[in-house]
Design brief:
With about 180 residues, chain A is an alpha/beta fold. Chain A has one domain: Glutaredoxin. Helix content of chain A is about 40%, strand content about 20%. The chains are: A alpha/beta (about 180), B mainly alpha (about 170).
């Protein structure tokens, strides 16, 4: 018993050391997922981002058909990387709307000219307030919204070619 | 994010800024640029220009209340107290009060605007927790997962008191 009492502090120190060291060598790179998955899309109404394309309201996600909601920006480099995948999804008949974060009409216009325009509507979120309401923590992010306006899936980061099939499936399942 | 909105800089290899959307471990290979066309210098130079970090900043200025205090000192104090308990989602070790990330600025604007409108700090915190989970606050609510945080100090104090009591007793004996 005495022996145990003698070594216990060292053992506790070693344990603590191991915990701290493991945190040091394997830093937590945490992706913050939205807690809105499974919940209704928050109400919002965003003005049009570019001339000739309507703005975006939450009501347009309650019309019986699943849609993608893409959160993007002209100043976001991974958004360029995912553009071909969005164009493919559009070609496969998946309707896509977007929220442009803290952007300007000329910058978005240029982005769409360079990278293609898969969007039916683009809302302008000038102060990221709708992005925060969605529980989105960066760009790009994509949400699958079912026909009743419920968020069913969140894709964090750029959509890779290998993610496209999953997204099409999620859209089908949301029907 | 905007920090996050931040963007992994592809040429920098495994960038691990808070903003990096691409986990260096899981997706390291994707974070690297596709093989460059052999056009040589100009293409690379043009690419490097596009990839300057300045390019990954929002093109609009931050909202008014991101960096401006509320006129009423009492309201500003309660906004400030709340901001210090909210985690910046981009630089995840910092509070939104401390962080320079663009998303933290947007969150400060949200907090100040709602306090200005008379909303209670607790309800703003709950609103954010409903969106981002408990992770967004440094003052997590008591739950099945977090009860040790509250119980452990009491247990440690208790066991410390017990050890102290027994060692004092030995001495007086």
């Amino acid at each position: 018993m005495k022996r145990f009492a003698l070594w216990a502090p060292l053992a506790i120190f070693a344990l603590l050391f191991a915990v701290v060291a493991s945190g040091l060598f394997r830093p937590a790179e945490k992706v913050v997922r939205s807690a809105m998955v499974g919940k209704p899309l928050p109400d919002f109404a965003l003005p049009a981002m570019v001339p000739g394309k309507p703005g975006l309201t939450s009501a347009s996600f309650r019309q019986g058909r699943p849609r993608l909601l893409n959160v993007f920006a002209s100043w976001c480099i991974p958004c360029i990387a995912e553009a071909p995948q969005l164009m493919r999804l559009k070609a496969m008949g998946v309707p896509i709307d977007a929220i442009a974060i803290r952007d300007t009409a000329p910058a978005i216009g240029g982005f769409l000219r360079r990278n293609g325009d898969p969007y039916e509507r683009i809302g302008s979120d000038r102060a990221s307030q709708v992005q925060l309401a969605l529980g989105s923590s960066g760009v790009p992010e994509t949400f699958v919204i079912d026909g009743r306006g419920i968020v069913v899936k969140q894709i964090i980061g750029d959509i890779r070619p290998e993610n496209v099939a999953d997204i099409v499936q999620a859209v089908k399942d949301a029907r | 994010m905007r920090g996050a909105n931040q963007v992994p800089l592809p040429l920098a290899g495994g960038v691990r800024g808070g903003a990096s959307r691409v986990s260096p471990t899981a997706r390291a290979s994707h974070a690297l640029p596709r093989p460059l066309p052999r056009a040589g210098g100009e293409v690379l130079a043009a690419l490097l220009l596009c990839i300057s970090p300045a390019f990954a900043q929002p093109v609009t200025p931050p909202a008014r209340y991101a960096n401006v205090q509320l006129a009423d000192p009492a309201k500003e104090a309660s906004a400030r107290a709340l901001m210090e308990t909210l985690r910046c989602l981009v630089c995840q070790g910092q509070s939104i009060a401390d962080s320079d990330a663009d998303m933290a600025a947007d969150m400060r604007a949200l907090v100040r605007e709602r306090i200005e409108r008379g909303e209670k700090p607790a309800s703003i915190r709950d609103w954010l927790i409903a969106r981002y989970g408990d992770y967004v606050t440094y003052d997590p609510p008591l739950s099945g997962l977090t009860w040790p945080l509250w119980l452990a100090p009491i247990l440690l104090l208790g066991s410390g008191g017990w050890i102290a009591r027994s060692s004092f007793r030995r001495r007086t004996r």
